[in-house]
Amino acid sequence: MRLAEIISDCEIINSRGDLDIDIKELRNDSRAVEPGDMFFAVVGYKTDGHAYIASAIENGAKCIVVEDGRIDISLIRDDITVLVTNNSRKFMAMSACNYYNHPSRDFKLVGVTGTKGKTTTTYMIKKILEKDGKKVGLIGTIANMIGDEQVEASRTTPESIDLQRLFRQMADANCDVVVMEVSSHALALDRVYGCAFDMAVFTNLSEDHMDFHKTFDNYLAAKAILFTMAKEGFVNVDDMYAKKLMDIATCPITTFGIDNNPFVSARDIIITNSYSDFKISMNRTLQRIKVGIPGRFTVYNALAAICVTAKLGASIQAMCEGLEEVTVPGRSEIVPSLKEFVVMVDYAHTPASLEGILRAVKTYTRGKVICVFGCGGDRDQIKRPMMGEISGKLADYTVITSDNPRTEDPAFIISQIEEGIKKTKGEYKILQNRKKAIEFAIRRARKNDIVVIAGKGHETYQEINGVKNHFDDREVAAEILKKLPEAKAPKY
User: Fold this and answer.
1) On the CB side of 449, how many CA atoms lie within 13 Å of its CA?
2) Are 457 and 331 contacting, i.e. CB atoms less than 8 angstroms apart?
3) Is the pLDDT assigned to residue 304 strictly greater than 90?
4) What is the pLDDT confidence band of residue 209, given thresholds at 50, 70 and 90?
5) d(Cα 56, Cα 49) in Å, to the nearest integer?
6) In Å, how far are 17, 178, 185, 412 from 322, measured between CA atoms?
7) pLDDT recorded at residue 485
8) Of 75, 111, 313, 460, which has the highest C-beta tally within 10 A?
């Protein structure tokens, strides 16, 4: 594509060189640059792309985009076209939209944001719409999907170039709707800038990613950006930050919830250890909805999915069937067994999500709650003692273990978690080896108990010193359960 077409509507404050050239590909990684490519020097969280301009040119880049004040463009070779902008991330995002011919305009685009519930809500929306006969693309934490075709996801919301390339694939595959998780990072870093969102969904907000956002106000502001981009919004009015978000929003808002006089509400709620059940008013009649995922939070996620799919014309039958059949890997996922106790794997890896899942299971579990969890390395350390205290207060027994220590010492991470649990009267045991920790918890379980293995959910690896070793909590738990007698756990 001609460079002049790619940079249409992009903010250029200075330029040097020929704009009437052909560009082969867009790149923000100098290592991936090939002859004829355009390279965007982006200021990242850990590295600055301006340091790799020479490498990009050496690999064949013929156009470089830089941020004003970051580099003296006179130092760049004269035969290279240079474009100077105030924000290279926005410039890259808009260039990607132009390069891939604005694919998000070719289907209905639904963005789901919030601290918890994004993944489950997107899976619910996808399942309902597929029951209604639509082809759906999905972008999120667990996977990117084009209909039934699955592509592994490296981050919740891809970088703008990757995102627009994926959108183009979805548009060319004739997707009717694309539903995507939109992270606060993606919004703050302009990864979704230029996307044509038809609908935005807000699930809830609690403290997370403070290492990146620094303040809670910044975190809320990042989430709210989505509601200045979308044509229409759906907001969980029961969340304490809903009003602040709606005050920032520029699109029409429909509220959903249970308690605070929402426009779309659930009533007569029943929650068991295997499903959630509630009534909702549809077409002036009460319709009972059953979801195969236990928990009050499931009701909120289902309400969000109903709001979106109803707007997209889905039938009541599709909603009922889709919600009853939906499963979400690693989200309140029950490990199949014939035991008299339950083993659940959940992605809860923040104080709010751990508290949420433990409070949820306590409401419907007749026995004791045994929690197995750790915290990731190279991430927010503040939450570690907080999560220890939460499990100590809510679980009947806690097994503290290793999560993804990355480059940190797992024993140090565990010691920080222990600081929090020591503030409670909760019983606990430390087993750094995650497999041994899971086995200990399962062998401790008795009739009507529930073992919650938290933190990793759908992940199939454990990252230690930069190496991702295969590890799936669900596989490990299933293997241990098979070793036990079919009727119940052994007695000591």
Assistant:
1) 19
2) yes
3) yes
4) low
5) 10
6) 55, 17, 30, 44
7) 78
8) 111
Torsion of CA 109, 190, 138, 164, to 10 degrees: 80
pLDDT at 146: 96
Give the full edge-to-edge strand order of the sheet including 342-346: 333-334, 342-346, 450-454, 369-373, 397-400, 427-430
| 345 band by pLDDT with thresholds 50, 70 and 90 | very high
Q: What is the dihedral of CA 151, 154, 159, 162, to 10 degrees?
A: -30
Strand order in the sheet with 38-40: 14-16, 81-85, 63-67, 38-40, 26-27
Buried/exposed 72-98: b ≥16 CB within 10 Å, e otherwise? ebeebeeebbbbbbebbbbbbbbbbbb
Most confident of 153-162, 179-188, 202-211: 179-188
Per-residue confidence (pLDDT) for residue 489, from 0 to 100: 44
What does each C-alpha distance from 385 to 253, 392, 423 come to in angstroms?
A: 37, 10, 9
Q: What is the pLDDT averaged over residues 106-111?
A: 98
Instruction: Let me know: does 96 contact 160? Beta carbons within 8 Å.
Output: yes
Q: 181 φ, ψ to 5°? A: -75, 135
Q: 3-99 belongs to which CATH class?
A: alpha beta
**Six token digits for residue 361:** 């299971």
Query: What average pLDDT does the segment 290-307 reach?
Result: 94
Greater confidence, 227 or 488?
A: 227
Determine the 3-state secondary structure of 127 from DSSP: helix
CB 164 within 8 A of CB 192: no
Per-residue pLDDT of 424-474, as tens digits, reads: 999 999 999 999 999 999 999 999 999 999 999 999 999 999 999 999 999
Domain spanning 333-483: CATH 3.10.129.10: no
C-beta separation of 484 from 339 below 8 A: yes
Could you read off the pLDDT of 474-492 as tens digits, one per residue? 999 999 999 997 644 434 3
What token pair was written down for 403? 């999560």
Strands in 253-257's sheet, in edge-to-edge order, are 149-152, 143-146, 136-139, 177-181, 108-113, 199-202, 232-236, 253-257, 264-271, 276-282, 285-291
**Is the separation of the CB atoms in 376 and 462 below 8 Å?**
no
φ, ψ of residue 453 to 5 degrees: the values are: -100, 105
The pair phi, psi for residue 482, each rounded to 5°, is: -65, -25
Tokens of 238: 């029961």
Three-state SS for 356?
Answer: helix
CATH of the structural domain 103-325, one choice from 3.40.1190.10, 2.60.40.1970, 1.10.287.130, 3.40.50.1980: 3.40.1190.10
| Contact status, residue 248 vs residue 227, Cβ threshold 8 Å | yes
Phi-psi region of 485 (alpha: psi -120 to 50; beta: other; left: phi over 0): beta
Token code pair at residue 482:
């098979």
